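Predict structure. Chain length: 418.
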Amino acid sequence: MTREVTEVTHLEDGGRAGRRQRLSAAFRAWRTRRHEHAPPTVDTGSPAPEPVPGANTLWRMRTTVKDEPGSLAALCTALAVQRVDILSLQTHPLAEGTVDEFLLRAPGELSASAITTAVRSAGGSDTWIERADAHDLVDAPTRVLGLAARTALDAAELPLALRQLLGRCTIRSQPAPAGGDRVPGSLPVEGALDDTVMRLRAPEGGVITVERPYLPFTPTEFARARALVELDARLGPRVPRGRDVLTLAEGSDITVRRADTRDLQAARAMHERCSARTLKLRYHGPVGDADRYLNHLLSPRFGRTLAVQTASGRLVGLGHLLWDGDETEVALLVEDAWQRRGVGAELLGRLVALAREAGCASVYAVTQASNTGMVAAMRGLGLPLDYQVEEGTLVITARLDESVLTTGAEELGSASAP
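Prediction complete.
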């Protein structure tokens, strides 16, 4: 279960045993150390990498100019003096002034600070700049249409599409409260924009919060994000239909496919067949609470879920890839009778492949040192691992690289799947 769910549960059930309190506190301490929202070192004011003679560098830059004739021309002239080519330009109108977003090609020896100095001399203010790459050469309308297509094919793509649309940002989904209003607080139908934070009504109720502390959102970006969320709401629940039939080492056939909230009843039935120890290792708390988390875990809004079912159609395993702000969690549950048969390792390998396909730099698993199956599965990935222990809770983080296999990920998780 994600740390967010753990903390919410702790707040709702303040009378739980001290063990739950220590676990929640440990998660918060670990999260505080990992979450940093300062801009990366490549942003404004950072030196350019060691220049290569004759080479060019791509930059993304934003600056605010006065909304008056000649202001943009002065800015373009200042860039031209520095031998900087403007490859693309988008304008974001504000109540006062305009935010201009550039894709620039500059001489390799020209630093970010030199570019921002030239822009400031031409009347630009609140300038932000970072290194770009070839992916930024795609024009904005084409990129937005591509993100809309991915979102249309897979509901789990919405958080990823928002992140690709808005750049480095933290995205959190707050589910609607049980009973009462669908949307927490008094969020307007059209959402709310407050400088570096935007809040949007989630299609199933609740709120999607997007934060980008290093760069304020513009009304144009807010409108684009809102359009993606509205598209998702109109299309309703959907996951790719791809599935793989595999034969385990001892000869049993299993099917691996994507799952969502329509599998809720089958998942609850699997819970009933699992031992108390298995459920406790998975959910880190009272066994009776296990069913409470399923609706959240199966929702495409919070990540991607893979299900394992037998030839008869019985659900015997679930693997979750959960978007946790700017991090990604993996979690597994395998029915007792199907443990130690390779099901968990198969699920974990596919989840990590999906994480790579989604552009995640790492994944983490929250477990206990006594959960030798999960520890072995993480080690079996063959990736660099980082171990952190907090009050008996083990957090294993795997850094993703090119060695991760992607077999089956495209069919089961990609938005381009049939």
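Summary: The longest strand covers residues 56-65.
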